[in-house]
């Protein structure tokens, strides 16, 4: 946590248009070695290098809400990856000192489910990005969330939570204060749960090589991480395998139907509450 | 592949997770998971046996006729050969 606080310090300054001679076009980001550059489609640009913090160009004219979205999203994941952490695209709650993280592609319902679980009394741990740190042994440690929970109005209505202010004028998600509070301490990961669609609700364990494959497939963050670490394939594989072997993974199928949303929430809550018995 | 069969150690890395051997081909970056007979064949490819030796070993281990084992072994060896992971002396 101290590491991320230190490394995400921000200062204004010029951001190079290239990284190691490779031009970074507007709307793209690039990692090379230990350097990261991202150029927005507007005049905003970000650069990061370990030990130097984050440099932002175009700050005076920028919408501060856009700046925060970038800082808390892609930039944060890049900083984490360049510092040896594993960013995953996941939202999570905590129960009895352990973290239950839900992952899936954009639109899979991670934040909405976590909001509904928060409404049911579970403390929120993170939204959208989960940072893992490989521990000496046992499950990886989850670093507490840095982002506020964001939901589309439909998601908030489904979850039964009250919406706060709009995230940005051109991004119609709203901030939500989780009803059961937010955890601010690092905690071990209990389970990584992959959200899927099914006719009914079922939790199915994921085993063997699929555990490695699932981590490899983690959407935008895996690519970021791969580029960030520039690890040789063998190193990357060894690290993924080490992480995968210490994470309990399940797929959670539930109906992707607003009318049956409550079934999924109840199944998830039961699963978490029953984890001790398993 | 008529000689003694081995894996080309420079071209892959492997790990064990649950009861599977997971192998990454370093040339392609692809990885695959081996269970059951395929995993047993993979482990027998240590440069001390030829194809018939692998079949004989598995037939004994599983108490199955050699002909029944041979088809699976040949198919798996062909796949490994195509991926460049198999070497023979």
What does this structure look like?
The complex is a heterodimer of chains A (278) and B (89). With 278 residues, chain A is an alpha+beta fold. Chain A has nine helices and 18 strands. Chain A has helices spanning 2-7, 64-72, 74-82, 110-119, 153-159, 209-216, 219-229, 233-244, 261-273; strands spanning 10-12, 18-19, 22-23, 28-32, 35-39, 45-49, 53-57, 86-95, 98-103, 123-126, 129-133, 141-143, 149-151, 166-168, 171-176, 187-197, 202-206, 249-254. In chain A, strand 11 (129-133) and strand 12 form a beta hairpin. The radius of gyration of chain A is 19 Å and the shape is globular. Chain A starts with a helix and ends in a 5-residue tail after the last helix. Chain B starts with a strand and ends with a strand. The model of chain B has no long low-confidence stretch (mean pLDDT 92). Chain A binds chain B through residues 207-213, 233-234, 237-238, 241, 244-245, and chain B through 13, 15, 17-20, 22, 24, 26, 29, 31-33, 35.
Short descriptors:
heterodimer; A: 278 residues; 32% strand; globular; B: 89 residues; alpha+beta; 3-stranded antiparallel sheet; 44% helix
In short:
The complex is a heterodimer of chains A (278) and B (89). With 278 residues, chain A is of the alpha+beta class.
- Gyration radius over CA of chain B: 13 Å
Structural class of chain B: alpha+beta
**Poorly predicted residue ranges of chain B:** none
End-to-end distance of chain A, in Å? 31 Å
- Helix-strand category of chain A: alpha+beta
Q: Indicate the proportion of strand residues of chain A.
A: 25-35%
Strands of chain A, count: 18
SSE topology sketch:
The complex is a heterodimer of chains A (278) and B (89).
Chain A: H1 2-7, E1 10-12, E2 18-19, E3 22-23, E4 28-32, E5 35-39, E6 45-49, E7 53-57, H2 64-72, H3 74-82, E8 86-95, E9 98-103, H4 110-119, E10 123-126, E11 129-133, E12 141-143, E13 149-151, H5 153-159, E14 166-168, E15 171-176, E16 187-197, E17 202-206, H6 209-216, H7 219-229, H8 233-244, E18 249-254, H9 261-273
Parallel strand pairs in A: 1-7, 9-16, 16-18
Antiparallel strand pairs in A: 2-3, 4-5, 5-6, 6-7, 8-9, 8-10, 8-11, 11-12, 12-16, 13-15, 14-15, 17-18
Helix pairs in contact in A: 3-7, 4-5, 6-8
Chain B: E1 5-7, E2 12-17, E3 20-25, E4 31-34, H1 36-44, E5 46-49, H2 51-62, H3 66-83, E6 86-88
Helix pairs in contact in B: 2-3
